[in-house]
């Protein structure tokens, strides 16, 4: 595909227009056709890749605001393509870790072809006997967030009670399955009957409820956890966190993975029940998956056999085509997606 | 003093009237004169003690409400004396750990004489070359809270920046001094010029501010910590916690020791900035000192020489007489006390 001179190809891109406040809209992004010369710049140690699958993740909302937090990912750049996790095929490599034809997952652009300038942060895909799209979720960032968040941040013990919010999402469905396999009692919340059915019947949660149909979240949690919650895997924040704080057990742990209910509010909701952290000696810890990528080989070693034996399943919500990517991303914030939201750029 | 038959003596008591909501008042307690037979009940393995010093602690406010939290201390019993930490002299012992004449610190009643029914939770006082009243604070629960909270919960490293709220209080003044001796940069907040002077000039804090005179707590913290806060030792909650969350550094730690600003509110204030826990991977942990009492001998080994060498100082606010104890306790919530609030029952 790449020639000595560099073939010039059309390159459909999803451009980030400008910083967003409040609920993001599709029109905060623009799908634009540009062109790209399929050749690495002279002396580049980057990668020229063809993008295959892109990942829509709630944390991307935080990148739509102007942030400057050391150690956190950068904000999107107005006028440039959205960036995020994806699966791509290497067309040309200037980096010793990769060669032409390799598959990788890592940070790439929302466009057909990308120049990846930080290949050292990408992972070569070695196992292709699973759906490639899994590397946007189960076998990528979401899987690592579930693995590290549950096993490392929550320090689980067999028999403990685990509650997961946004439990049918990219991360939640995995945390629940990991916790069940580990020997915990697992309950999840989600925002529709369909998702609750998934939790109970597909992912094997012990119980689940639709938070939109519970007038009293505290009562719902007391019904599901008469003895209280040892571990809360937090994906949503807001009123759910406050209700959970009332129901934590002594020496419980809360892993803060995301607060999706808060990302689009001009002013976040308050958490009023923090005193329970003291009364029950609870640890609440925010974490970012980037800190745990050194565990990726260990994670794969655990999870690949589980996938092949059918012990871990994964539900994806697949959107075809870059032109539909903005709607797919925005849909996360209304809970439109059922399972992990993936955008297919190309089936090759 | 105790005779074979048991001398009957007058016993002034501070009685807890009924559960409190909102700001507690002196009249929620009643000072009453009763009598007591100075003799252990037949077969008791308890202790008959003469109380010398009583401790006024903010956590006692939580015990004025009807709570039922496993692992936390019980609520006060309406119609019975207030209970809390104190220093006492053993008059008669039914327990092998103690003998007549011993000094102890531990849970006792707000009265002249008490029958301690759980002597195994009391500590024998072995070192009397320091002020005895120190065992209500520096060498008692407050000291252990500062020691365990700082060294165990906060996992400090040399050179880190430490912020302490209610920093001139029973616990805060010690956390600051421990942190300075350990090699941290230490800033405290307090509620008067006098207290701020203490922090800077007596306790050796690097900086301090009067939160009542700061129109913008976020700005005050940014002024004191241009690079951010590694460790926050939380005694107050509310707006201060929210401002601190904005100023935490990557992988910071927050030890929740108390939330005194919230105890008297019908509805606690919200914490709006929890997203910072994720963005900066911060751990926030509530702790109770009871979990750490096994470290008491190690703590004494560290702190007794520091006291004798003048490296650790301790400021107490002493109130004479049980009849003034209710006012002393209530005063904690308006910040009337300067340093550790102690009530002297008897100088013997």
Automatic annotation (TrEMBL), chains A, B:
Alphabetized SMART domains for the sequence? PKS_ER (SM00829)
UniProt cross-references to InterPro entries, sorted A to Z: ADH-like_C, ADH_N_2, ER, GroES-like_sf, MDR_fam, NAD(P)-bd_dom_sf
A molecular-function term among this protein's GO annotations: 2-alkenal reductase [NAD(P)H] activity
Query: What sequence ranges are listed for the domain Enoyl reductase (ER)?
Result: 46-343
Q: Can you state which reaction this protein catalyses?
A: an n-alkanal + NADP(+) = an alk-2-enal + NADPH + H(+); an n-alkanal + NAD(+) = an alk-2-enal + NADH + H(+)
State the source organism's domain of life.
Eukaryota
Per the UniProt record, which EC number(s) apply here?
1.3.1.74
Assembly and interactions? Homodimer.
What name does this protein carry? 2-alkenal reductase [NAD(P)(+)]
């Amino acid at each position: 595909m790449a020639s000595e001179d560099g073939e010039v190809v059309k390159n459909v891109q999803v451009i980030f227009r400008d910083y967003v406040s409040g609920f993001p809209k599709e029109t905060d992004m623009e799908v634009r056709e540009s062109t790209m010369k399929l050749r690495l710049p002279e002396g580049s140690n980057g990668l020229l890749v063809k993008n295959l699958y892109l990942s829509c993740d709630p944390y991307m909302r935080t990148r739509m605001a102007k942030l400057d937090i050391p150690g956190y990912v950068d904000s999107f750049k107005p006028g440039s393509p959205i960036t995020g996790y994806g699966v791509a095929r290497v067309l040309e490599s200037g980096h010793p870790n990769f060669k032409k034809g390799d598959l990788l997952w890592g940070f790439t652009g929302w466009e057909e072809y990308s120049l990846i300038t930080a290949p050292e942060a990408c992972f070569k895909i070695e196992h292709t006997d699973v759906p490639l799209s899994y590397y946007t979720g189960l076998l990528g960032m979401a899987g690592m967030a579930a693995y590290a968040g549950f096993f490392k941040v929550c320090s689980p013990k067999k028999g403990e009670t685990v509650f997961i919010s946004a439990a049918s999402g990219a991360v939640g469905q995995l945390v629940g399955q990991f916790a069940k396999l580990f020997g915990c009692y697992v309950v999840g919340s989600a925002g529709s009957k369909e998702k609750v059915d998934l939790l109970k019947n597909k992912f094997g949660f012990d119980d689940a409820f639709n938070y939109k149909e519970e007038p009293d979240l505290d009562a719902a949690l007391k019904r599901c956890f008469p003895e209280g919650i040892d571990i809360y895997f937090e994906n949503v924040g807001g009123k759910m966190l406050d209700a959970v704080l009332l129901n934590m057990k002594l020496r419980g742990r809360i892993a803060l993975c995301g607060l999706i209910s808060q990302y689009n509010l001009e002013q976040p909701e308050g958490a009023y029940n923090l005193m329970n952290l003291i009364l029950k000696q609870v640890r609440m810890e925010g974490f970012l998956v980037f800190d745990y990528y050194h565990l990726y080989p260990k994670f794969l070693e655990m999870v690949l056999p589980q996938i092949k034996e059918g012990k871990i399943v994964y539900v994806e919500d697949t959107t075809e085509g870059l032109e539909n990517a903005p709607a797919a991303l925005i849909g996360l914030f209304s809970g439109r997606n059922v399972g992990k939201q993936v955008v297919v750029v190309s089936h090759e």
